[in-house]
Structures are given as structure tokens and as C-alpha cells.
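Example 3.2
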Amino acid sequence: MTINNQPAYGQYPSPGAHGTPAVAGGQIYQFRGGAASWFGTQLLGALIIICTLGICYPFAVVLVERWRAENTGG
């Protein structure tokens, strides 16, 4: 399914010639993290929020987003 000649959200564009991305200047990102490390990070974030009664919520969000940034790359 395409919208305005762009792939729908969550779908990868079909590769063009020689395996290059079909979208000009586009880059396909790869997820390199593991389920156990993701779950551990989520659990640690939840514990930080619960133990501090929500005061450290921004720190938990940064913890999770940093993990996501480190485990996703192109």
C-alpha cells in the first residue's frame, strides 16, 4: 500500500537496483538489540519510576530512548 507514492507507515520500500533503497536519499535502519536487554531496560525504567513515585520519569525515558538509539542503526 502506498500513499502519495510513499510506502505506508511501518513498511519498507522495495529495494531498487543493486539493493539500494528505493527512496532517494533514504536509509533503512536495522534493529540490533536483543529481547532480554530490551526487557531489562524497560523493567529498570519502570522500577525507577515506581521507586521515585514518578519524580525520575524523565530519566527513565532517556534510559529507554538511549538504549533504542544505541541498538538501531543504518
